[in-house]
Amino acid sequence: MPQSATAPGPPGIVTIVDHPLVRHKLSLMRAQDTSTSKFRQLMREISLLLGYEATRDLALEETAVETPLERTRAPVLAGKKLCLVSILRAGNGILDGMLDLVPAARVGHIGIYREPRTLQAIEYYLKLPDDLPERDVILLDPMLATANSAIAAISRLVEARARSIKFVCLVAAPEGVEKLHRIFPGVPIITAAVDRCLNEHGYILPGLGDAGDRLFGTK
User: Fold this and answer.
1) What is d(CA 91, CA 143) in angstroms, rounded to the nearest whole number?
2) Domain spans, the chain
């Protein structure tokens, strides 16, 4: 497994997006009586706010623009833009909101499930754009628990030579943050909350349950 990612910047960066709207919506998502449709809507709304933070440092360049009054120069995104990569299946809940924010982004998918007994990540699907070396990747998964799935996905992105990598999640466990940054110290984490701990089954406490089941109404 590769021991470092291509993401620039100081190691071990964790950004907690503590905007009041994010905190309020996440609290609603935590409640066990929140319906599937409401949970899905809230995830999409929070994803927009997390995406705003995750894209804060995108490069800009100036271009000529004709306003109704005069010709001027104004900033636009420079060069190749983003690639959003969803860890299936729950990552698609964040993907929808992020695409509302950056509809021109390319999209990749990495199918990974967690083996219930060992909690190890098992890959079953991989589809990424060919030009990742020219793109900044934002990897999406609602939960950073054991970090096994995130590390497996980041390993694939490093193999594909992604220009940079960030990881966006709704909720993280301290154990997952520590493990991810021990293996990939250069990958920033953007999250709405870092919760207390993992339980013996690898679930985040207090958490919000299984994000995929709650998103899609399955058990």
Assistant:
1) 9
2) 14-58+80-212
Concerning whether 33 is annotated as a catalytic residue, the answer is: no
What is the tens place of the pLDDT at every residue in 49-67? 999 999 998 889 999 999 9
> Beta-carbon neighbour count of residue 67 at 10 Å?
8
CA distance linking residue 137 with residue 177, whole number of Å? 19
Phi, psi angle pair for 118, to nearest 5°: -95, -15
Beta bridge partners of 74: 63
Alpha-carbon distance of 94 to 56, in angstroms, equals 17
210 catalytic, yes or no? yes
Condensed to tens digits (0 to 9), the pLDDT of residues 110-152 reads 998 877 777 677 888 999 999 999 899 999 999 999 999 999 9
For residue 188, whether the previous peptide bond is cis, meaning omega lies within 30 degrees of 0, is no
Q: What is the CATH number of domain 14-58+80-212?
A: 3.40.50.2020
Which is catalytic among the residues 15, 23, 96, 114? 114
